Write the structure tokens for this entry.
Amino acid sequence: DVKVTQSSRYLVKRTGEKVFLECVQDMDHENMFWYRQDPGLGLRLIYFSYDVKMKEKGDIPEGYSVSREKKERFSLILESASTNQTSMYLCASRRDRASDEQFFGPGTRLTVL
Amino acid sequence: AQKITQTQPGMFVQEKEAVTLDCTYDTSDPSYGLFWYKQPSSGEMIFLIYQGSYDQQNATEGRYSLNFQKARKSANLVISASQLGDSAMYFCAMREGPRNTPLVFGKGTRLSVIA
């Protein structure tokens, strides 16, 4: 079974803090993705990575950056957290570009006060 | 323009009845894939079913089937014999173009199954 884990289920941070959300997958998948989920808006793609040290902007990259130093780990960074970044963050992985299914982690619910 | 449209924010269905969750999509690419995911209250996203644009037959997986109408650009999810455990958010998603593109999701439909 593919396992995608995220470092925290719940996180509370203050405005202006630097926040790291970690995602790890254990199936040697090449592709990894970060989405945020908000009520009424569905899932929106923030950043994705096709391989180590590669990154691509998604639909809403503003205010975020990512890091993929190792194949199994994809980090989402909020350089200076703001209240409008309060959301559920979902990480996903996919075997490679020829695959279809994306496997999701359990999500991190981030609250920025 | 929205790529994936789910027009039903919420749906109710009686236990053991069938229910259809609507999804329409917008793409000009002849190669695409359509997905349905289930998200229970626990938050994890569970893959349910996949339909490729060149697939001749509608996809089925147990109690789930995908009613794929290419000309109408619709990919409705049909759940037969609803169970209480089917209560969840359901998301339709599309991979547009070659396989290397990320999934684009709709806004979701909340399904409530009533005993």
Summary: Chain B touches chain A through 26 residues (CB under 8 Å). The first strand of chain B starts at residue 4 and ends at 5. The CA atoms of residues 38 and 46 of chain B lie 5 Å apart. Chain B has a mean pLDDT of 94.
